[in-house]
Amino acid sequence: MSKVFKKTSGNGHIALYLGKRDFVDHVDSVDVVEGVVKVDSSGLEGRKVYVYLACAFRYGSDDLDVIGLSFRRDIWIKRVQVYPATENPTKTPMLESLLKKVGEQGYPFAFQMPTDLPCSVSLQPGPGDSGKACGVDFEVKAFLANEADNPDEVIDKKDTCRLMIRKIQFAPANNKAGPKAEISKQFMMSDKPVHLEIALEKECYYHGDPITVKVKINNETTKTVKKIKVSVEQLTSVVLYCSDIYTKEVCCQEFAETVNANSTLDKSFQITPLLSNNKEKRGLAVDGRLKDGDTNLASTTLSQGEKEMQGIIISYKVKVNLLVSSGGLLGGLTGSDVTAEVPLTLMSPKPAEVADIKLESSD
C-alpha cells in the first residue's frame, strides 16, 4: 500500500479511507475494492451510513443537466451498510492497516467487482469543450442516510464523501509472437498480382514504444508501388443501448519506398502512436485519469471470452497501404492500392509495487 487516500464529508461526521485508487482487472478476476469509513456517531441517532461502488457511463458534464435529464448512466452499482455494522469483511492486510490508522471509529467494507465491467476510459474533449469528459468512471461514495435502506433517497451533499477510483488492465506477462496478415491483389490489364505480407514482432506493445512492422512485397505486375503508408487506428466500441464503433487514426507515416515491376521488398518500418500527437482529436479514447494528471492513449481491452461487456471497449489495428501507380503516360498515382491489417495490443506494463505508506487527503 503506497498511500492512504482520504475524503471527509462536509459536516465532518464521516470520512472515507482507501489504500489505493487503481484496481487491476486480471481478466478472470478483479482486485477487491476495500476501505474503511470513519464515523463520528455523536448526534447520529437513528441514522445509517452506507457505501456504494458504482461503474457509470458519463455522457457529459453535470452542469448541462438543466431539464431533468441524467447525463450519467449506471452500468453496475452495489451498496452496503457499514454503520451500524451489518457485515464483517475478511480482514486483509490492507484493511488491518487502514483500521489501525483510523482507530475505533473505523468500519470496514469490501466490494467484489464482476469481470465483465469495462475499464476506466475517458473520451478526449475538443479544444472548446469544458466540464467533465465523457467516458466510463468508477466511484466509491459513503453517505449518511435518514431513511431505512431507500436507494432513491435524496442525500445532502454535506452528508457525502466520495473518491474516484480506476479499474485498469496491464499487459500480459508473457508476450506472444505478433500477428501476421497477407493479401494478393490483381489489377486490370495484369495477369499477375501484388503480394503483400505484414507482421508485428510481438503481440503486445507498451505505450510510447516504437512498433516495428515487417513488410514483404512481391510485385509480379507491370505496375510500380510508389509509396508505403503505415498507420495505427483506434477502434472505440461504445456499448450501451446499442453498439457503435468509432475509428480514429492515431498514427500515420508514409515511406517513399519504390517497388518496381517484377521486384520484391523485404523491410521493417517503425511507427510510434502517442497521445501527444493527438491532443486536438475530439472523442479519442484515453486511459481514465484521476484529477488532471497526464495519461496516454486508452489501453486495449483484454478479451473477456464470451462475456458481453457494456461501456467502452478499446482495440487497435495496424494498417499497411501500398500506393500502386497506374503505369500510364502521366506516371500518376491514380491506380489502385493494396491494404493489409493486423490487430495491435497497446497497453502499460505492470508497475513494481511500492511499500511505503503516507496519507493523501482529497478534502
UniProtKB/TrEMBL annotation:
Keyword line = Sensory transduction, Vision
Q: Superkingdom of this entry's organism?
A: Eukaryota
Q: Where is the Arrestin C-terminal-like domain?
A: 190-351
Q: Which GO terms describe its molecular function?
A: G protein-coupled receptor binding
Q: Which GO terms describe its cellular component?
A: photoreceptor outer segment
Keyword Coiled coil belongs to the record: no
GO BP terms: namely:
G protein-coupled receptor internalization; nervous system development; signal transduction; visual perception
Concerning InterPro entries, the annotation shows: Arrestin, Arrestin-like_C, Arrestin-like_N, Arrestin_C-like, Arrestin_CS, Arrestin_N, Ig_E-set
Amino-acid biosynthesis as a keyword? Answer: no
Q: Which SUPFAM superfamilies match?
A: E set domains
Among Gene3D superfamilies, the record links this protein to:
2.60.40.640, 2.60.40.840
* Functional note: May play a role in an as yet undefined retina-specific signal transduction. Could bind to photoactivated-phosphorylated red/green opsins.
Stored PANTHER family: ARRESTIN (PTHR11792), ARRESTIN-C (PTHR11792:SF19)
Family, according to the entry, reads as follows:
Belongs to the arrestin family.
According to UniProt, the name of this protein is Arrestin-C
Q: Which source organism does the UniProt entry give?
A: Amphiprion ocellaris (Clown anemonefish)
